[in-house]
Amino acid sequence: MTLAAKLEPEPQVTARVKVRPRAQLTLPEEIRRALRIGEGDEAEFAVHDDGTVTVRGFISVPTDQAWFFTPDWLAGEREADEQIASGGGQVFHSADEMLAHLDALAGGEDEA
Known about the structure:
Layout: H1 3-7, H2 29-35, E1 42-47, E2 53-58, H3 71-85, H4 95-111
Antiparallel strand pairs: 1-2
């Protein structure tokens, strides 16, 4: 076993496909699941100097929803998910109750 083989992580999923007429490939279901793509989505192929190829899946996002996928927004989503999973956060039984709580927090910050 070479040093390079020892350093490369084992693949989670592998598949072999035939190139069809007009250079078309059909991605097997397990590969589509691993890339989290479906019909209409895109795949990016990157060829590296050593001949390996990296494939990444892309899901098209409408431009009016792109803000949701910014790194800052996604980091906040992860933080909220972790907080909820650890039992943190508050439950409000109405929008008015939540807004009153936010108003109180804003008022408390102004006084500080």
